[in-house]
Every structure is written in C-alpha cells, then in structure tokens.
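Quality-control log, excerpt.
Job 1 of 2 completed; input and output follow.
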Amino acid sequence: METYRVKVGAQGEIVLPLELRKIFGLVAEDTLDLCVDSEGKVFVRTAERSVRPLSDFFEDLIIGDLLADGCNGDCLKAKLLECKLKLSTVLDRLSEEAHRAHKNGQSIKWWETQALSPLGIKKTFDGTYNVMLTTRSIHDLAVLREEELSEIPEVFQNLELDPLAFKRLNGPYYETYRVSFRCRSKEYRVIYTVFAAENLITVLTIGAREVLYDRLNGIA
C-alpha cells in the first residue's frame, strides 16, 4: 500500500499530492470522505465522482439556464456542479439500460437500421468494436434529415476502429464518450458507452447538441 505524507495547515487544511489527485481524478470542489477505524487510522475515499471530465459537458447551456433563473455567484457555482452530476447520472443509467438491452438481444448493428437503408450501405464488421444501436438511438436516427444521416456512417466506422480517441464525458463508472460532427451550421453529437472487455459500443443517443441537452434533462 502506497503512503503519502502531507502537512496540516493552520486552519486544519491539507494539500493532496498531485499524484494522489490524479489517482482519484480530483479537481477543485470535489468531495472526499475521511473514515476513521477503531484503531484511529484514517482512510480517504471519494464521496462523489470527479466532475473534471464534465468540464465542457453542456456547460454553456447549463449556465444560460441558471442565469435565466436568476442564479449567480455561489449559487451559480453550486447549481452548475449539481446539474453536471445530474446529467452524468442520467448517462450512467442510459449506459446500464443499453447494455442490458444488448444482452437481451434488443440491439442491432448500426448498418442494419432502417433509417440508414436509403444510403445503400453494404457493410460487414471489419473493425475492432461492434457498434450497436438500441431502441432509443434507432429512434434518434429516424428523426434526422437525410443530409444529417449521410454523416453517420463515417462516424460509426471511426468508432469501430478507435472509440477511445474521442472526448470522454463522465466519471469512473462507465466509459462514456461523445463524438461530434457538423451538418451545415449545426453541431451534432453521438454519445456512446464502450464496454472494452466485450469489444462493444452501445450508442446512447444521437442528435443536435441543444436537442441532446433538452433530452437528457427531460430524462433526469
């Protein structure tokens, strides 16, 4: 077991070494639990996941909503963290649901979905990862326009090869990421979870960035 020695400041504060902060994935405002056993030994554990991977996760949209509600100063800071963690929890739940649906045979390979059939895709698996769609992401594709759908095959083919190359969204519970693409002036995102041990990618949701923000808030 590694030991890290720290000094206690005048106000009782301690500074965790950088290496330890990296191990925990800690940033400012994260919370720790200090646990004391019957022998007086102190153990440290994270009380909540780190919000660092959520640093740009709809932050501007969240802040816009909070400002519109009259929230500012310390209220804004606290509410921003609360909203980020809420959306992260939603993604965890969607990841669990998507994996369970796949295990129950309720997912399909991405090129088999009816929404992409007009593109005439003739595809067999030739990457490292299987990209699978469940009912939610199939529905998301069904409401996209043809010009938006035309961008999707390249996105999924890139995910088959290296899904970890894109932006990670949430904390230590699931390996959830997003990949972006643009159609005209709009930014779209595909949010997915990687189950590396199974060479599996489950696509959670697809759509314009603002639409996904509203959608995830609606689920929360």
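Job 2 of 2 completed; input and output follow.
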Amino acid sequence: MKELGELNGNEELFQKATKEYFTANINNPNSYTAILKVDGEIVSAGSIVFFIRPPSLGNLQGKEAYVMNMYTAFDHRKHGYSSAILKHLMQYGQKSGVNRIWLTASSAGKSLYQKHGFIEYGSEMEYKFEKK
C-alpha cells in the first residue's frame, strides 16, 4: 500500500489493522495466505478470501474468491515469485470449489494477472475456471 501511495500518512494505523486482521483470521477456512521464503526470509505473499454470492447463470453455487495483498519485496522481483504465489492461490481456489476468482490490480500488477489468464472488466480483473 505504501508503494502505491495509498496510505496518506496512516501507515501505523494500517499496519496495526492488518496485523489484527491476519491474527484473527489465521485459522478462518474462508481465507488463505501463501508465503514464499528465500533463505528463510519472506520475499513474496498473497491471500485469497472466499465468499458466497447469490447464484448467477455463470456461477450457480455462488462461491467466489478474491485475491488480495499480492506483494513481492522490491529486491526479489522478476524471479517468478509472484507467479508462483498466484498459481498456488488459483489452484487452492479451484480445489476449494470456486469457478471465479477476481481482484483489483495495480497498474504494475496487471501484466502478471493477464499472463495467468485474468481478463479486465472495468476496475477489476477476473479468472473463470472452465466448467467440467
């Protein structure tokens, strides 16, 4: 959030709220966080949150997933770590029964998501698994 310029001087409050959220939801079955370590240091992470919407023709069970908090430390970018995290989250989402994953991408992140099949819809991007 800091790199995106979205904290507006509220970094301490944001860090506190984020820590409280992840501490409270660490065992919540409706959220999942993947981390990638290099030499014992966390260098990349991403989360997915599951929720149920009313059924639609494209999603009769209504279960969807939202990808959030994708981040790779600046010095560790361009090594495929974000791709590895995203692939893992997508596989986890598919195994959990979702057929749609969506997210809001930064301008810097759009190419990553497009590379993995996400399509832009307004301010969001989505990926739909093929129906079996």
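Post-run check on job 2. The mean pLDDT is 89.
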